[in-house]
Amino acid sequence: MSTARVLTLIAAFAAFATSSAAQTPVTDGETASMPRTKTGSDVQPVMDQAIFAHVLFNEFEGRWNGSNSEFRWDGQGWVGTDYDRLWIKSEGTLQGNGTLEDGQQQFLYDRAITTYFDLQGGLRSDIDSRPTRNWAAFGIQGLAPYFFDLEVTGFVSGEGHLAAKLEASYDLLITQRLILQPQLELNVYSKADPARLVGAGFSDIDTGLRLRYEFNRKFAPYLGVVYEGRFGQTANFARQAGESTGDFRFVFGIRAWF
Amino acid sequence: MKAFAPPLALTRRRFMQGAVAAGALSFVPRSLRTALAAPAPVLSGTEFQLEIGAVPVTINGRQTTATGVNGQVPAPILRWREGDTLTLAVTNRLSEPSSIHWHGVRTPSAMDGVPGLSFSGIAPGETFVYHFPVHQSGTYWYHSHSMFQEQTGLYGAIVIEPKGGYAQAFDRDYVVLLSDWSFEPPERIVSNLKFQSDYYNYGQRTLGTFLDDAQRKGLADTVADRLEWGKMRMSPTDILDVSGATYTYLINGHGPGANWTALFRPGERVRLRFINGSSMSIFDVRIDGLPMTVVQADGNDVAPVTVDEFRISVAETYDVLVRPTADRAYTISAQAEDRTGYARGTLAPRPSMAAAIPPMDPRPMRTMADMGMGSMQQGSMPGMSHGPMQGMAMDHGSMSAMSSMEASPEAKKLQGSVGVDNLAMVPTERLQSAGEGFPPGRRVLSYVDLRALKPGSDPRPPSHEITLHLTGNMERFIWGFDGKKFSEAGPIELKRGDRVRFVLINDTMMEHPIHLHGLWSELDNGHGEFRPYKHTINVKPGERLSYLVTADEPGRWAFHCHLLYHMETGMFREVHVA
Amino acid sequence: MIARLYRPFVMSLVLVSPIACASSEPTSAEQNAAVPLGVDLGGSGPVLASAQPQAPAEAMLVSAQAAAPQHSGEMQMAHAGQNDAHGTGTVNSVDPTQHKINLSHQPIPEIGWPAMTMEFPVAPSIDLKGIKPGTRVNFTIEQGQGGMYEIKAIAPAGGGR
Predict the structure, then answer these.
(1) Cβ neighbours of residue B119 closer than 8 Å, sequence gap 6 or more
(2) Do β-strands B330-336 and A162-170 pair in parallel, antiparallel, or remain unpaired?
(3) From the CA of A231, how many Å to the nearest CA of chain B?
(4) What is the pLDDT of residues A54-75, one digit of tens each?
(5) φ, ψ of residue A89 in degrees (nearest 5)
């Protein structure tokens, strides 16, 4: 039932999105050679509506707090043209004991609306070792003044619960290849979800400082420290479950894209 | 990832000299073996057979595959004569469509070689026969107009002998075709730029440069400067989108270590036909110890002007005369504008001589004038603080409060749109500036130095003006005119016989060499009827310039920025002369 | 990609190409093939009658001081080019109406020519009366517009006969 409502919301958004989407002839800008040209008048002098695809792993790291370790990933991928893209976001933390936590997966349609920002909408699925939840997602993503990377997304669940997520990061160049990246992720929920150890209000924060070295642009190992914090009701749930409410961890990982 | 070595180190690298010499002439397609005993570097006459194909080459000792003509990269020098009628049969032996455009040569539009406008391209295996008369003389070039083949090697020189003789005497004559070569496939270069537009910029501002600037200018000034640029989400270190981080710069197809040499006898006058046949690189050319006298620009005679250095943008040509009198070698160096590499050759009395390679000049930085904030400082030095601008609020939102900085209504519509990241509030007329990055004391060519030898052939004033904004969004790597890509805009319509003024306003902070096919662009540079005839005009960041066009040849003409990856991501229009 | 397809061929070609190219090296003044040499397209030949004799202007110095254009005088119209080569040979025949000479000449290393027998147009100012078939001559040729070599000086060799 609730899933059906979520899907209806998404379908409505998708209909709006496709009607406003620019025409995109399917031409592959990523791989080489043949534009799919027919004869005569279909040939274009330049193919400026090419489709590109990229995947980025911002976090792909082992986290260690002195007593236990976990593995976390946070990545995104998109395929599309300058204006219209299909976007996937995925994050999750794998605990030492094998449980998967904080598994947020988003499947979005992305539309470029201003010089620096895109509008996104679609589906978020919390898929991990805890009960699955589905949400409709709406948000913006882009580059804020002073070169802050910003993602702000709001969510509505089938039962009408609201949530929001803020992600921000900044790249400080120490040298041309040594880059310090402060990063922040913040989650807010309107209603508690005990099965997922999530409380109402400001729920959790995942923030870190990572120092990476870019051997090349697409491959950069990094070291850093992160703080995983839980607030308010979420902190209560965590304590009851025997989990920590605030954790500093050392991280080592690879930032990669292709 | 190629680490960039300082200039002197390159000459100590061991290069496969023989293979480099062979590199330009490596592979003769089987079908041509019978026709050619050896690949000919110069083809002359009135009938030509050109075969486009994949050519294995060696560049800087590394083997790769390029796109060549008749087994050569660069393609053979075509030597024509003014007044002849030519027949050129071009066969495409690639597995993708191809084309050849005769850059700067006025042909009927069906012979111009632009797929989608002139014809539908040359399909794999097909032969297209170009046939047209030549009514001009000078140095030109030819290149593919299909996808990224121009980047992978399909470019060559055209030398058209004048009917009545040259305006100045000379004893030797060499083509100097500058280009850029990457071992990365061009599709990947664009893809990289789409994801991270500063991918190839290893000259960015860092903590190190912040501390340097703070030491020189003071902490407050430096912080204010960083905030100023940061608020705009721009970087003053954006000089060239694709740099020496991936490019090897070539002179006639040879890397800097190959020591391509042009021979002379001391006292002789040597003509050097410089052609920028690169895809994305603007070069600053000089011959250390030898002044150059510029006698032609874009194939047309200009009043001779002596310079120490000139900046040649993509697709431009400059013919210079030099007169080396000493029995020594001279280094011809063409530095990339962002100083991430250079092409290098030698002028020498005997082969195997080399002169010292001068160190590269300091890297230029963009200024607030380049952002279109007005020409507060002309010719500012790299790293100079924008003193007078400190007091002004650089917030675009408050821009409209300053009456002198009011954007035009049509420009206001573009603000904030996906294809536009900046608007030049006060575009400046600065043809007299040679550009940024030249040390003081050097005579550098600027556009006002170009004065045609004879007055223009159409004395009419323009009947109307067409204003175009050169726009782009660096972050998304989208480029266009008036905020729109080619696929989002219609053609520019002209009537046959029209005399029109094109006004270009560069809202971006990069140079754009704008090329109009088929018709001459007569640059308004203060010389009245002796304005120079050009085919490619380099518009500087934040600049406003204009040129006159007589639409005397009907057809659908391409009009575009000649930076290949800008063109392919939208900076292209059709000019339709009906 | 094309690169992968051709990789097997490239290795063999690297071995073959220096051999192929050694035999097909474009003619150059000196025989050193290690350094790539530019192809000399030749001299300008006779220049435009209306060519401007004045000195070239100078570009402004970059420090924005307007330097008075300095007169270099080097680019003034001068006598014909010095793109000439010298040779020795024997006259086979003289054609006074067409003003041409047919010669058998020795190799001319300056321009990479082997010994040949060929016909040359002769510069109009040269008097052909003293040149008889069978005469051994020293001559100077110059490449004109369009690539043709023309005799611009000729004299009997070794004091004549």
Answers:
(1) B99, B110, B113, B128
(2) unpaired
(3) 33
(4) 999 999 999 999 999 999 999 9
(5) -125, 140
Residue C153, token pair as written in the block? 């000086």
Q: Which pair of structure tokens corresponds to residue B298? A: 């874009």
Nearest by CB to residue C38, choosing from B170, B261, B267, is B261
Buried b (16+ CB within 10 A) or exposed e, B502-521: bebbbbbbbbbbbbbbbbbb
Query: 3-state class of B461 per DSSP?
Result: coil
For residues A76 and A87, the answer to whether their CB atoms sit within 8 Å is yes
Q: Residue for token digits 């470019």?
A: B155
Query: For residues B346 and B353, is the Cβ–Cβ distance under 8 A?
Result: yes
As a whole number of angstroms, the distance between CA B317 and CA B139 comes to 7
Name which of C144, C123, C124, C125 is nearest C46 in CA terms.
C144
Is B440 in contact with C17 (Cβ distance < 8 A)? no
How many Cβ atoms from other residues are within 10 Å of residue B169's Cβ? Answer: 25
Rounded to the nearest angstrom, the minimum Cα separation between B79 and chain A is 28
pLDDT tens column, B530-563: 999 999 999 999 999 999 999 999 999 999 999 9
State the Cα–Cα distance between residues B407 and B304, nearest whole angstrom.
40
For residue B363, what are the CA distances in angstroms to A180, B203, B204, B335, B510?
25, 9, 11, 10, 14
User: Using the beta-carbon criterion (under 8 Å), do B476 and A40 form an inter-chain contact?
Assistant: no
Strand partners, B72: B69
B474, two tokens: 């660096």
Task: Tell me the β-bridge partners of B250.
Answer: B179
Of the pLDDT bands very low, low, confident and very high (cuts 50, 70, 90), residue A153 is very high
Q: Nearest-CA neighbor of B289 among B346, B250, B236?
A: B346
Give me the residue from A49, A145, A257 closest to B230, CB to CB. A145
- Residue B145 near residue B111 (C-beta atoms within 8 A): no
The answer to whether the Cβ–Cβ distance between C59 and B352 falls below 8 Å is: no
